[in-house]
């Protein structure tokens, strides 16, 4: 690799053990392969999937059966490059798209590389993430960011990419109406993305009043307590679920107009009893999203142009030694996005 800055041989990393304890360890600094870059990690967002692995030790078939470094929403500075990468990239500030696909299968070739059966994704067993001081990624998935963009925003381009993928699937366009269930971090980011795509009406639901108040600051045009108010049937163009809760999914689908879309983003039960008669009679397109593809250019543009504010989502900052605490406080309704700062 080409290096013009001093890179240590070891680094600190926060490691989740199979017994679901979190410990701080010294690990070797990863060495970039020919097509990779080494990034000094400066900000990492705490995601719901990180919390899920920490609390339950698995998501579906992905099981924490050996030590793993969590964290996949990240930004930092390139400090070394592989032999096939332009050494002029050293010093670039980047946002990391945290996945590696085979690039040759049918899904990769048609641009849906997130569906690649050989996909390797940060912080998904057995692939390590970046609650650590350094990380490696293919050079073209280290996306340069403007000098005006913060490292917090660079990290949060990843959940914004999930929201962009959901909004694209929902066919949101200028004037669209959308219902979003859940005023947590991903729901609020989906609201910002929907507004950026031109949605004219953004209704959000949540059982917690504090989160409903937050949603009004981030693009919601109306907020509803689903325990107190039932929304009219066939009243919105699209529904996005960011809860994973069956009652929210069922009631949300009921609000979709004929020919509309229902996008399930939240992680819930593996099997759900859905209102098939409604889906069929209205020809509602029901789908999920599996991460994203080709979203970073749009996300960077949205942030740079001020139509999405990611910095305002940050509700706390923590060092590597405080990762467990950052994972524990997600239930606080005032917590939106906690940021881990590995260099602290």
Number of helices: 9
Order of helices and strands: EEEHEEEEEEHEEEHEHEHEEHEHEHEHE
Helix content: 10-25%
User: How many E strands?
Assistant: 20
Described by strand count, sense and barrel closure, the largest sheet is:
7 strands, mixed
End-to-end distance: 26 Å
Low-pLDDT stretches are none
Strand content: 25-35%
Q: Tell me the Rg in angstroms.
A: 20 Å
Mean pLDDT metric: 96
Plain-language structure description:
It is a single chain. The protein is α/β, with parallel strands linked by helices. Helix content is 24%, strand content 28%. It has nine helices and 20 strands. Strands 3, 7, 8, 11, 12, 19 and 20 form a seven-stranded mixed beta sheet that branches. It has a six-stranded parallel beta sheet with strand order 15-14-13-16-17-18, with helices on both faces. Helix 3 crosses helix 4 and helix 3 packs across helix 8. The radius of gyration is 20 Å and the shape is globular. The model has no long low-confidence stretch (mean pLDDT 96).
